[in-house]
Structure prediction request, 256 residues.
Amino acid sequence: MGACSRAAALWAAALLLPAAAFAQSAPPLYVLDLKVTADHPPDLGRPLRVRLFSAAPADLARRLTGVVSVAADHVVLDASTRAVLSRGAPSPPRPTFVIDYDAEPVAALHRALLDQYGAKPRDADLIAFVRATVEPSYGRSFDIASQVAIQKKGDCTEHAVLLAALARGVALPARVAIGTLIAREGDQIGAFGHAWTEIYRDGAWNLVDATPLEGAARVAYIPEGLLEEEGPGYGFGLLSLLSTGILRVEVIGNAP
Prediction:
């Protein structure tokens, strides 16, 4: 192995992030294998070009934004910290089985939100309120909003569901997104299954993530799908989404 190749292998190994690093602050849905294959260390403060391996790359590519190319077993993507899937002006918010903001447990939190932040809370206010309400924890499956309001525990999915419910409660269209988060702690980087919220405000959809990530920085979000089915059968939609999702990630370098 030449000197340059050996050096590249050493810093690539140093960039791999153990799953335990985030376990206490942000329990992930799952942990993905991530490798850095670039010839030079990527700038983690800039957008990344990544190779996403999947059992169904064409189906995966149709759900992504920033696709560069599609091959037989992978998709090349320019990943962004602000990637969203929702498009166009949405319909007025309404309660559903999953986002049941009309249920009393959520309504009580909504009143507390308004008392603390006023009638028009900012995205940062919603994030702060959800983080103060929900204790990061494993052990929940994918609770609906009223269950989150009662249990006040959960991982990224519970944070995202409650945030969407509180946003709809103040007349902001909101949806739950499922995908992959690439994050770093120092010089180490990892990829995790994750859930967050998309909120429509001031004529545009915005990515809003209420999950605590203490000591780490978010490098890129790769939204793989939205929670389209919000009825009692929402679990089947989640399974379908995950079945054609990302299997492993390679960081090629920085996006041009």
